Amino acid sequence: MLTSLLARTSGALLCLTFFVVAMASSLVFGNIPVSLDMLIASCLDYDPGSLEHLVIRTERFSRTVTALIVGAGLAIAGVLMQTLTRNPLASPGILGVNAGAMFFVVVGATLFSLTSPSELVWAAFTGAATAAFLVYFLGQEAGRGISPVRTVLAGVAVTALFVSFAQGLLILNQNRFESILFWLAGSVSGRELATIVPLLPGFGLALLVALLLSRQLNLLGLDDEVIRGLGLRVGQIRLLVGLTVIVLAGTSVAMAGLIGFVGLIVPHMARGIFGTDHRWLLPMSAILGATLLLAADTVARMIIPPQEVPVGVMTALLGTPLFLYLARQVRQLS
Q: Which parts of the chain span the membrane according to its record (predicted)?
């Protein structure tokens, strides 16, 4: 773990370097290879007659932006959930928040013919809030408050419930299956930049709120009586954090579907490097989350060309071993 300011600053610069490399790789690699010179030329002197320029501008740029936003959003949502619940296993994917958002997206798309992310995001917010309430209610243990083990079990049950409902709804509506399939698997492809832009103000506001709450988040690990003694309103802070998680997770699902484990992996990576101070943990989690999803998507499109593996499959392959390890650690401590 980096402790001094100089070490943390150096670590942050190194993470930023990896982020830039991952973003450049996302724009360069694919079924149609593009050189760095061609990439720079497409930005400075766009030629609509060039196939490479067209691919970069119309497909890869929006794909890269989507992966960047979704990765950062899920990572910060994971940090907030782990801090809020004091549970190292908490994340939007594990606790069913993503699954709830995804189910309501499927409902909106199949029953109400909603198509663009700016329309579906409201359904995603509703689903994320519903799932969060269910998990919070089911995770309560009489006389002891929220139980980490019960919360995870509740999250698994809620996830299975909403995913089953979504699959059943799609079976009954075969005509919409192809257009909704990528939400079930998780994918950052096929998003037009014009459909992403309307989501950015709300997403940016949620990120800003999370960063502004960094000092208060550092205190949430203390007992509630101690926090109140410091003059903070615990209930209001937790409500604001919960709403921020719903916005971040809901927007991510509306943009890219069911991508799991980013919110679980990245907070532990960032915490292991930069410590538990949320003034460092939140921004560095955003950078690492964006880097991870960009790298996973780049690898996913190169494994079995010209076919692409959904990026949700790649994050599951990375996250499942870590989840099992963390679950074992929690069980030993309980």
A: 61-81, 93-114, 120-139, 151-173, 193-213, 239-266, 278-296, 308-327
Residue 143 to residues 79, 135, 140, 146, 147, Cα–Cα distance (Å): 26, 17, 9, 9, 10
- What is the C-alpha separation between 212 and 224, in angstroms, rounded? 20
Determine the length of the chain: 334
Domains, the chain, in order of start with CATH, read 5-33+61-333 (1.10.3470.10)
**Tokens standing for 262?**
């980013």
The rounded Cα 241 to chain-centroid distance in angstroms is 15
pLDDT by residue (tens digit) across 139-180? 887 656 677 778 888 999 999 999 899 888 888 776 666 667
Residues 45 and 318 sit within 8 Å (Cβ to Cβ): no
Q: What is the mean pLDDT of the chain?
A: 87
pTM of the shown model: 0.92
- Name the percent of the chain in helix, strand, coil, to the closest 5: 75, 0, 20
What is the token pair recorded at 188? 């950052």
Q: What are phi and psi of 3, to 5 degrees?
A: -115, -40
9-60 residue pLDDT tens: 999 999 999 999 999 999 999 888 888 888 888 888 888 878 888 888 888 9
Task: Give per-residue burial for 20-47: e unless 16+ CB within 10 Å, then b.
Answer: eebbebbbbbbeeebeeebbebbeeeee
